[in-house]
Write a structure and sequence with these properties.
Blueprint: E1 18-22, H1 26-37, E2 41-45, E3 58-61, E4 64-67, H2 78-88, E5 92-96, E6 99-103, E7 106-110, H3 114-121, H4 123-138, H5 147-155, H6 157-172, H7 181-188, H8 193-204, E8 217-221, H9 225-238, E9 242-244, E10 249-255, E11 259-264, E12 269-273, E13 275-278, H10 282-285, E14 289-290, H11 295-303, E15 306-317, E16 326-329, E17 338-341, H12 342-345, E18 355-364, H13 369-372, H14 375-389, E19 397-410, H15 416-430, E20 434-436, H16 448-464, H17 479-482
Parallel strand pairs: 1-2, 1-13, 2-9, 6-16, 10-14, 13-20
Antiparallel strand pairs: 3-4, 5-8, 6-7, 10-11, 11-12, 15-18, 15-19, 16-17, 17-18
Helix pairs in contact: 1-9, 1-16, 3-4, 4-5, 5-6, 5-7, 11-15
Bound molecules: flavin-adenine dinucleotide.
Length: 501
């Protein structure tokens, strides 16, 4: 069992709680694993009939393995890092990071090294970029509450257009002016062109301590993220707990007692359970709650928006050993937003040294022309784009596999925080024993580690019999994405004990 400093784990007092967990992704499985370790009964319900791991699953075909977007394993929490080590031991590889941006036929280092970027842009474009940065510093947009204004103030209009706008709009399918500045704050934090140039100057001066800002390596399971979650699921089952696959929970009934009954898409019932932990999308589950939510809360649940995602796996016979794990396609002439090179994540993601497996990533929304394409149309598009990028020749492609992931990204629009506040308030007041966890389960842009942390803390709260930790205080922490922890401390920085403790 994992014990981290600053965490209270209530010892099992012989009173077992019966808990239903909706979703066998990182959040649900971490909660189930921890509850099981603490002596409670859990039953996990997973909609997918084949894979556990949710968005962190690994799809396998003919010896090629594909992530739903490459999944780096990196956390500033000792608990999470230790958890991964305990589960997979030596199967967790440490990989040097290598990623690039592709823009107008050129490759730029990513995370962006601005001096190099300005150099590669050429004299005219670099002068325009620096000039527009100076202009933005002199005349910043007041109260920047959307992505465009926020980034423009820090990098200038021109660099915003080249390095932020195209990719961000591909990801979200909306204008950067409609995207909340929260997203920029989370991704970029206090970074700006000025900071980047200052850091570049410091790093040239040997007397200055090098400011380590960018993650240079990360961990990754030898067989992809699915290996982690398949192993956790096997351990949960080995402890005598149940994981029910192919069970899409469509209805939740809260009865006095309190107790909970779950119903699947075929109308079969499960329960009663003392508590429910849900990582299912809020907009999908909460409208099917009995008794019904108030009209205001129902409206809030249904107003939450998502972005969907398609990865087209390209299986190729090609012995080329490219160092890049992924390449962002900022070039607007490509529909794909990013391409993954899975062999550079782990050599065992492909059947052997003569093979390469790529994943072209497309961001779309259910109902739009991209999402609605047939598999054959997806394959044609991906084939054209990967050949145009020069990563493989047409003749080297063996087959392509289309993998659709709905609700891959919870959208941070200008209203999501008030919708969430409404839902939390009503659920807390009228539905004791319901616990929000994970990414779509909390409508938070959580990575695996934060999704896991919410599951873990929820398990501790249930074991304690009262809320000890506020899972909403587990933040997405922008530093996670691109900046390394400089302190070296690996405790649990995301926790805040509740005020009433
Ligand atoms: C393109 C992309 C790249 C990413 N890269 C990284 C990365 O590099 N590193 C990282 O740490 N994280 C990354 N993430 C984030 C990571 O995938 C998520 O944080 C993580 O999977 C969230 O875990 P979760 O359990 O909350 O949700 P999910 O992974 O969404 O799992 C939820 C599970 O619940 C099931 N479910 C949903 N509704 C129901 C229902 N009604 N009944 C039964 N089952 C249901 C789903 O089928 C799913 O299996 C990435 C995400 C994306 C989209």
């Amino acid at each position: 069992m994992f014990i981290s400093s600053g965490i209270n784990i209530t010892p099992f007092d012989g009173t077992s709680v019966k808990v239903a967990v909706i979703g066998a992704g990182p959040a649900g499985l971490t909660a189930a694993y921890q509850l099981s370790q603490l002596g409670h009964q859990v039953m996990v319900f997973e909609a997918d009939s084949q894979y556990v791991g949710g968005i962190s699953r690994t799809v396998v075909q003919d010896g090629f393995r594909f992530d739903i977007g490459g999944h780096r394993f990196f956390s500033k929490s000792a608990f999470i890092e230790d958890f991964w080590t305990e589960i997979l031991g030596d199967e967790m590889l440490t990989r040097p990071r290598c990623s690039r941006i592709y823009y107008r036929g050129r490759f730029f280092r990513y995370p962006l090294a601005f001096p190099e970027a300005l150099w590669k842009l050429g004299l005219w474009e670099a002068t325009r970029s620096v000039g527009s940065y100076a202009w933005a510093r002199l005349f910043p947009r007041p109260q920047p509450d959307n992505f465009e204004d926020w980034v423009r103030n820090r990098f200038g209009q021109r660099l915003y257009e080249i390095f932020f706008k195209t990719y961000t709009e591909k990801v979200w399918g909306m204008s950067c002016r409609e995207i909340s500045a929260d997203w920029a704050v989370q991704r970029i934090q206090n970074f700006s062109l000025g900071v980047a140039l200052r850091q570049a100057l410091q790093s040239r001066n040997p007397s200055q301590k090098k400011v380590k800002t960018l993650i240079e390596q990360f961990r990754y399971p030898r067989l992809g993220p699915g290996q982690m979650w398949e192993t956790v699921a096997a351990k949960i089952k080995a402890q005598g707990q149940t994981i029910c696959m192919g069970q899409h929970i469509c209805q939740l009934e809260h009865r006095p007692g309190p107790s909970w009954i779950l119903r699947n898409s075929r109308g079969e019932s499960f329960g009663p359970f003392d508590q429910v932990i849900s990582s299912a999308p809020l907009s999908e589950l909460l409208p099917h709650l009995h008794p019904r939510l108030s009209p205001l809360a129902l409206q809030a649940a249904q107003a939450l928006r998502y972005r969907d995602f398609v990865v087209v796996g390209v299986m190729a016979k090609n012995g080329q050993n490219l160092p890049e794990q992924w390449i962002y396609l900022h070039d607007p002439s490509f529909k794909a937003g990013r391409v993954q090179n899975f062999r550079a994540w782990s050599p065992d993601m492909v059947p052997g040294p003569d093979y390469n497996g790529f994943g072209l990533e497309y961001f779309c929304s259910k109902g739009d022309t991209l999402w609605e394409q047939s598999d054959a149309e997806w394959q044609k598009l991906a084939r054209q784009e990967i050949v145009r990028l020069g990563l493989v020749r047409e003749s080297e492609i063996l087959q392509l596999r289309v993998i659709r992931q709905s609700r891959a990204y919870p959208v941070y629009d200008q209203h999501y925080t008030s919708h969430l506040a409404q839902l939390r308030q009503e659920m807390n007041a009228h539905f004791p024993g319901f616990h929000f966890v994970g990414r779509n389960g909390m409508h938070r842009y959580n990575n695996q580690d934060h999704a896991m942390m919410t599951g873990w803390l929820t398990a501790l709260n249930i074991a304690a019999g009262h809320p000890q930790y506020d899972v909403w205080e587990v933040n997405e922490d922008a530093e996670y994405h691109e900046n390394a922890a400089t302190s070296g401390l690996r405790q649990v920085p995301f926790l805040k004990a509740r005020e009433d403790e």
